[in-house]
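Researcher: Here's the sequence for the chain we discussed earlier.
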Amino acid sequence: MSGIKPYGAHKEKRLSAALVRNLKEPGFYADGNGLYLKVDASGAKRWVQRVVIHGKRRDIGLGSTSLVALAEAREKALEQRKLARAGEDPIALRKRSEGVPTFADAAIRYHELSKPTWRNEKHGKQFITTLQTDVFPHFGAKRISVVSTADVLAALTPIWNTKPETARRIKQRIGSVMKYAVAQGWRTDNPADAITKALPKHDRSKVQHRKALPYDQVAEALSKVRASDAGVVTKLAFEFLVLTATRSAETREATWTEFDLDKAVWTIPASRMKAKRAHRVPLSARSLAILKEAERYKQTESNLVFPGTKLNRPLSDMTLSKLVKELGIDAVPHGFRSSFRDWAGESTSHAREVVEFALAHVIKDKAEAAYARSDLFEKRRILMSDWADYVSEKN
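Model: Thanks. This is the structure I predict for it:
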């Protein structure tokens, strides 16, 4: 770099803002930390920094003086000099940063990659739409590498107390995108984890749990459903859900290939389970009878056990919810899992772990989980048979 023209007696900060504005003579003017002002013959001015990277001198452009002020150029020059002295390559880092997507782009990429893992289409859609509504307006346009805890806090604060359940889910979703970014090498931390103590704790004592019937009223509810004017497939699906103590989607989306009717076993694949683990369900005699009746309504074009009115589409969750509501049953479909659990805990001698396995609950105690090498299937077969007998005897 020939023609360097030092200004001032000190090694650093030799230039001033006024001098930068007034210099006209072409050449390089040193400031310090390898920072130079280059004045072209045309009068154009730009910042250049000379650093030594892995033993070689390199020149890095820092931008025009019309866009980058002296103070900003000094700050950038000092930062890059520190990186170079630590063995980093500022030029390579800049190129990598240029390939870093915005938070919105990263979220969309993660959403697309995760499509095969969503429990259902609705959950997948909720993931991205909540981010689009409550997060993208705050920092969706920022590169994901520079999103800070303050950004995440600013997005969550307006909804943290007004929409607590949604806010908690959004926080988890931001965290998932950030973990994806860490795996891609775009950042090294997850700012969604760091803000936990900055947000007030939610009062969960007033959380309304899904409505469930006392277990001694389940049989009456089943009788109402059987006697109703609802479609046959809808009634069969509802009773099957109650007898198997499964979640709504697990029953509604069941396919014939998941069943071994000879062995009276229903194996729900991991992709359809909340815990992402395959779950075997022992089928009672009444459950088998329901499946045999459902076979009469099997659609040749569909593998669904309980098809909806649209081709290759299962019954909707709303169909079952609407059924119990119209019949005056004070519960939601999911609530019958609670009825089953209360019955098993209060009216039977079945072990707690057998009931938990029947509900496909994850064992949170790590020590207990380590010893749970069996799914207690044969014991669960007796449990589910007892449940079917209980709700039948009441009729």
